[in-house]
């Protein structure tokens, strides 16, 4: 019983019992993503950025000058830590237990997010693979465009419920559905 509590997701009560087949507009809560903060030491910014870009099974999310999130939905934390420890001029910390990864997609995703962020998400302005720190649903978040109509949102665990509830409210008129990842 105690082991189940250790792996209980912070949004379990927000979704369990309400999961349904995905509508065209859908919000997925990723159960166990691996998320590391990565900081480049002075003079190593370009090398760290390039190493992150080339790393297998790791997707870098730009946060600010010399700062990224290294995100993986396929690799284990130990694997990501091993890759990051091989980078010269970088410091890193595992943030997986302190962050929640949400994936929102669908034809109305920009209309939904327009109610939650003060950033222009038009494809000509916010390109695929682009990410930035911003306020999303009144919460500090990292938002990344990962596909034509897909965005990933990383929020701190303590406020994930608030961000999730607001996203669902903003997506209600677009029939936004929700589920956990497999």
UniProtKB/TrEMBL annotation:
<feature type="domain" description="GCVT N-terminal">
    <location>
        <begin position="66"/>
        <end position="176"/>
    </location>
</feature>
<dbReference type="Pfam" id="PF01571">
    <property type="entry name" value="GCV_T"/>
</dbReference>
<dbReference type="InterPro" id="IPR006222">
    <property type="entry name" value="GCVT_N"/>
</dbReference>
<protein>
    <submittedName>
        <fullName>Sarcosine oxidase subunit gamma family protein</fullName>
    </submittedName>
</protein>
<dbReference type="InterPro" id="IPR027266">
    <property type="entry name" value="TrmE/GcvT-like"/>
</dbReference>
């Amino acid at each position: 019983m105690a082991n189940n509590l250790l792996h209980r997701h912070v949004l379990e009560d927000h979704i369990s019992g309400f999961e349904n087949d995905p509508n065209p507009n859908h919000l997925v809560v990723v159960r166990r993503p691996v998320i590391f903060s990565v900081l480049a030491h002075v003079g190593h910014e370009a090398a760290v950025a390039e190493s992150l870009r080339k790393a297998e099974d790791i997707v870098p999310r730009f946060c600010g000058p010399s700062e990224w999130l290294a995100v993986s939905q396929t690799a284990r934390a130990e694997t990501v830590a091993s890759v990051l420890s091989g980078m010269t001029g970088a410091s890193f910390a595992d943030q997986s237990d302190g962050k929640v990864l949400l994936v929102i997609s669908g034809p109305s995703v920009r209309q939904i997010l327009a109610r939650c962020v003060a950033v222009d998400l038009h494809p000509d302005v916010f390109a695929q693979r682009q990410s930035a720190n911003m306020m999303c649903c009144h919460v500090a978040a990292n938002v990344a465009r990962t596909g034509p109509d897909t965005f990933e949102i990383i929020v701190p665990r303590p406020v994930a419920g608030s961000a999730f509830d607001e996203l669902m409210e903003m997506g209600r008129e677009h029939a936004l559905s929700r589920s956990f990842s497999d």
